[in-house]
Design goal:
Layout lengths: L2 E6 L2 H15 L1 E4 L8 E11 L16 H13 L10 H6 L4 H11 L7 E3 L9 E2 L2 E2 L5 E9 L2 E8 L2 E2 L4 H23 L4 E15 L3 H8 L19
Parallel strand pairs: 1-3, 8-10, 9-10
Antiparallel strand pairs: 2-3, 3-10, 4-7, 5-6, 7-8
Helix pairs in contact: 1-5, 1-6, 2-5, 4-5
């Protein structure tokens, strides 16, 4: 299993560098159980994003836009249930314990608290089925937090991560989540904390076989051939 460390300036840079590393150095892995059974290329990655607050949050070539990212941050991460969804990250963060609210309270009581970890995965997620239904455990397992030098830094773990389609929306949405968390802490405590780094770990950050050609073209864009000028197309001399 190859492990790669990636340092990126901002969110679009992290997406592009991660795809490049997987495409060039990824292990071949055939998924035989899960949401999509497919041949993949994958890496165990650690990604450090130095300035995730930098705009734009999403590269213009990514398969998502800011409208979707805002929906993901607000509905899927920050708030509760969504119709027709068994669960969301937000529903697990809010119940049975409102971990978001508790994190805000703890930081207002003590900024140097190193125990503020928001957990999404549950013990029963180890099961293939819950009742008679096939069970899909969450890809995002936890969001760990720490305030250092006036900045809130997040460290997140994805057990499995679609690097092409999921990663750009996920990291942008988590940055908006961090900004909302900081806004609540600042507003209630009359403070001036800023968002800091985003750090991600994933043991299986992957590209599906159906995405190979898309990623290859993104990493190695075809160059437009130079136009050869003939006597008929050559510009007039001054």
């Amino acid at each position: 299993m190859k492990h790669v460390k990636i340092q990126a300036f901002d969110c679009p840079d992290a997406w592009y560098k991660t795809l490049t590393e997987i495409w060039k150095n990824g292990d071949t892995f055939e998924v035989k159980y899960g949401s999509e059974c497919s041949l993949t290329k994958k890496l165990n990655v650690s990604i450090e994003i130095l300035h995730p607050e930098n705009r734009p949050l999403v590269d213009d070539k990514a398969p998502c836009d800011m409208k979707y990212v805002q929906w993901y941050a607000l509905k899927y991460l920050w708030s509760g249930l969504i119709e027709d969804e068994t669960y969301t990250y937000g529903s697990r963060l809010r119940k049975p314990v409102d971990q978001v609210e508790e994190a805000i309270r703890r930081y207002l009581e003590e900024m140097n608290d190193r125990q503020v970890t928001l957990v999404i995965r549950m013990p029963e997620d180890i099961k293939k089925k819950i009742g008679n239904e096939k069970h899909e455990p969450p890809c995002l397992s936890l969001i760990d937090t720490e305030i250092l030098n006036g900045q809130l830094h997040l460290t997140c773990y994805f057990r499995s991560w679609d690097a092409y389609a999921g990663l750009p929306a996920n990291i942008a949405g988590i940055q908006l989540f961090a900004e909302a968390l900081v806004s609540e802490i600042n507003g209630r405590g009359s403070l001036n904390i800023q968002t800091g780094k985003l750090i991600f770990h994933s043991k299986n950050c992957h590209i599906y076989e159906r995405q190979f050609k898309i990623v290859e073209d993104l990493i190695n864009p075809k160059k437009t051939p130079r136009r050869v000028l003939s006597s008929q197309t050559a510009p007039a001399q001054s």
